Amino acid sequence: MAVPRSVLELIGNTPLLELTHLDTGPCRLFIKLENQNPGGSIKDRVALSMIEQAENQGLLKPGGTIIEATAGNTGIGLALVAAMKGYKLILVVPDKMSREKIYHLRALGTDVRLTRSDVGKGHPEYYQDYALRLSKEISGSYYIDQFNNPANSSAHAATTGPEIWQQMEQHVDAIVVGVGSGGTLGGLSQYFKDVSPQTEFVLADPKGSILVDYVEHGRYDEAGSWFVEGIGEDFVPPLGDFSQVNHAYSITDAEAFSSARDLLLKEGVLAGSSSGTLLAAALRYCRAQTTPKRVVTLACDSGNKYLSKMFNDYWLLEQGLRSLPQENNLSDYITYRYRDGATVSVAPQDTLQLAHSRMRLYDISQLPVIENDQVVGIIDEWDLMHTIQANSRHFSLPVTQAMTSQIQTLHKKAPLAQLIATFDAGHVALIVDDDNRFLGLVTRTDVLNAWRQQLN
């Protein structure tokens, strides 16, 4: 086999894996590992197809500028192809996109324009309207418009569908897909109408998206919000062919994230949040069957883009998607608990250099000083500056030379009013138990998050 001379030649022909460690009822469940594409997602296929079509039609000139709106992985696919082909790329992305994706895009030379994720179509900050406006303002640019570009769905009709059909030995009872731009559903529907019209399509949709209502009732109300990236919509994408969708499942963020984490823990597949949504729906479908079926779903992208989010226990806590045992006292407000090794701290004899390094690493401005499980002080950036300003060699001094030892702690059973009073006085809340052992810090953000979660 010839060795590829471009990373673009590695797009497609991804492996298929049977999942054998999850409860799939009477069915066999297979997952196509689209996270093995060079850009890490199924959208590499779409990006290559759309750019090559624009080239063939003369819509994209050498050295030209591509503009697109993307809430998911299409942006990374476009960035990869654009970089390899020498095009400039401007992407308008909602501000809920994970940091890993944004870092990836910028490393590929993409001009990333962040916009609001809490507004709908017609608002000037809505990501698709924003991108269209840019394309009209920038001379010679090409708006690739994945939501209306037929090369999006044709990529799946020409490559993804035939690959699944061949890998499944021409026996596919059901395919579980999600819908963002609608290209995957549209392309696979087009292909399987010809080769296997009896194959059922199952829609996996984030709770808050309007597409389940559209499939089940032919109408929909105003969309809600969701954390899952890349799928779910507040409108019906023109490229999506819903005529073959036989079942539709609305999947909560919590179920999607839990399923993605199970996929890693039990099957060894590191996949993203949309993949968790698809897997959750696939498992529901499989368990509901009374006869054996061969079911296929997709690992749409790699989970390494979500390590700071759904694979981060504390992010899940902060978003109300995970909970800890409650004691009905102030300790319930602690997100990063000391007994779990989650509190970032220093010891009295640690150096100021170490204290500064931990502040930078964890993006915090103050640290408790802990000795024998008790708080003996607190050190913040001002303490460091005050001690080091005379001589930078003072970084080698122990923390005791700079910390504030006059501290106030709050017993975990203290009333909430005392916690609020601590904040009003400009102090951080240091929570202790009956033996004066340190339990953790409580910040204003921790309290606000707890109150917000009570509304859910």
Automatic annotation (TrEMBL):
Question: What is catalysed by this protein?
Answer: O-acetyl-L-serine + hydrogen sulfide = L-cysteine + acetate
Q: Which domain of life is it from?
A: Bacteria
Q: Which InterPro entries match?
A: CBS_C (IPR046353), CBS_dom (IPR000644), CBS_dom_sf (IPR046342), Cys_Synth/Cystath_Beta-Synth (IPR050214), P-phosphate_BS (IPR001216), TrpB-like_PALP (IPR001926), TrpB-like_PALP_sf (IPR036052)
Stated EC number for the protein is 2.5.1.47
The record, for Pfam families, names: CBS (PF00571), PALP (PF00291)
- The enzyme's main class, written as a single word, is transferase
**Boundaries of every CBS domain copy:** 338-397, 403-456
Q: Pathway of this protein?
A: Amino-acid biosynthesis; L-cysteine biosynthesis; L-cysteine from L-serine: step 2/2
Q: Which cofactor does it need?
A: pyridoxal 5'-phosphate
**Which stretches are transmembrane?**
none
Q: Which family does it belong to?
A: Belongs to the cysteine synthase/cystathionine beta-synthase family.
Question: What's this protein's name?
Answer: Cysteine synthase B
Native source organism of the sequence: Xenorhabdus beddingii
